Queue: 2 jobs
Job 1
Amino acid sequence: EPEVTQTPSHQVTQMGQEVILRCVPISNHLYFYWYRQILGQKVEFLVSFYNNEISEKSEIFDDQFSVERPDGSNFTLKIRSTKLEDSAMYFCASSKREGREETQYFGPGTRLLVL
Amino acid sequence: AQKITQTQPGMFVQEKEAVTLDCTYDTSDPSYGLFWYKQPSSGEMIFLIYQGSYDQQNATEGRYSLNFQKARKSANLVISASQLGDSAMYFCAMRERLTGRRALTFGSGTRLQVQP
C-alpha cells in the first residue's frame, strides 16, 4: 500500500543553522501538508500546498519557513535559521480531494532537535 | 475556545474488552470531516477512521467504529476487542470545509493502555 515517506528520521542541528526536511507524498495525491508536534503537545498545522503553491499557512509558518516541490515527487520544508523552539517532530502528509478522499495520510515524521 | 476537546488524558482497558475514547468538537461550519489517528510510541501518525458531517451512518473500519452524534457535536471512537498493540496515543481531528481550509485541527489526545 502506498505511503508517505520522510527523510531523515532524526536530525540534530545547531541553533541558527538551516535544515531541510524531505518528504515523498503518495504519488496520486494532490495536496501536501506539513505539521509539527512539540514533545508532549498536540499536532499543529504549518502549511498546505496545492498546484505548486502554498494554499494555506498558520501563524507558526513565518518567514523562517519555506516549502518547495522541486520535482514531481519530493516535497520539502526548509527552516532557514533554526531556533531552540523549533525542536519538534515534523510530519508531512498528503491527501486527494474531497469526501473520504480528503483523508490526510501522514509520514513517519522527522524528529528535529535544535541545540 | 477549543475546536477539538478530548477530555480523557489517559484510559486503561483490559485486553479483549471494548473502550470508548471521547471527542467533542466545536464548529459553526455545516460541512466538516472528522478523523481519528493513532500514534504509537514510535511516533508515527496512523489514520484510523473518517466521518463526514453529512454521512448518514456511523463509520466503521474493522475493530474501529465512530459513534457520531451530530447534535451533540461528539465523535467518539470505539475500539472493540482491545489488543495489546492498541496501546498508543489517540488523536481526534477535524477539517472545516466551507472556508476552503484544509488544515486539520487536532485535540490534545488520549493515551490508551491495554492491560493483559
Note: Chain A has a mean pLDDT of 94.
Job 2
Amino acid sequence: QQQVKQSPQSLIVQKGGISIINCAYENTAFDYFPWYQQFPGKGPALLIAIRPDVSEKKEGRFTISFNKSAKQFSLHIMDSQPGDSATYFCAPAGAGSYQLTFGKGTKLSVIP
Amino acid sequence: NAGVTQTPKFQVLKTGQSMTLQCAQDMNHNSMYWYRQDPGMGLRLIYYSASEGTTDKGEVPNGYNVSRLNKREFSLRLESAAPSQTSVYFCASLSLSNQPQHFGDGTRLSIL
C-alpha cells in the first residue's frame, strides 16, 4: 500500500514560471506536512511545512496549499529560478511520531 | 557547527563482506534515523532510535543492524552485504521539540 503518492515524477519549467508539485496521502493520522528539497550529492533539507489547522502557508516564493478533505497538499514555486532545480519530496508525518513517510520525489528542472 | 556527519562518503564492497556506516550529530538531538534512497523510490526508513538506548525497525530493516552508541552516534551495520543493498544511505536526527529532521550528506555504497 503506497501511503504517499507524489506527482509529477519530473517537471520542466521556464525561468519565471510557476512550478506545482502535488502530494496525495491516505493516512488520516498525518498531522505534519513538509516539503523537502534535495540537490545532487546532498541530503534532503526542509523547504517548507504546514500543520492541518491552516490551508495555506507562504514563505517567500514557496507556498504550501493544504486540502484536508481531499487528503492532498501541494507545493507552488513562484517565479521559478534555475537555482530551484532539484528533487522535491513530500514527507508527511503522524501525530507525535515525527517519522516521515516520503513520496517518490519530483525532479524539477528550471530552464533559462 | 557540522550538523549530521556521515562516514565514509563512498564505499565499494564485495558480496558477503561486512561494513559499518557511521553517523554523528552535534545538535544534542534525541532521535536519529537511517534511510536508504534508491532511484525512483524516495527515502525509505531502515531503523530509528527515538532516544539513547532504544532502537526500532522501520520499513526496510532486513539485512541491517543498528547501534545507538550514545546520544551523538548511531551506526548502521551490514553483516553480509548483498547487491540489493547498493544504495545511498542517509542518517538524520531530530530534536523532539524542534522539527525538522536534519540530514547528513549520505554514504554512497556499491556492492559488487
Note: Chain B touches chain A at residues 4, 31, 33, 35, 40-45, 48, 58, 90, 92, 94, 96, 99-101, 103-106 (CB under 8 Å).
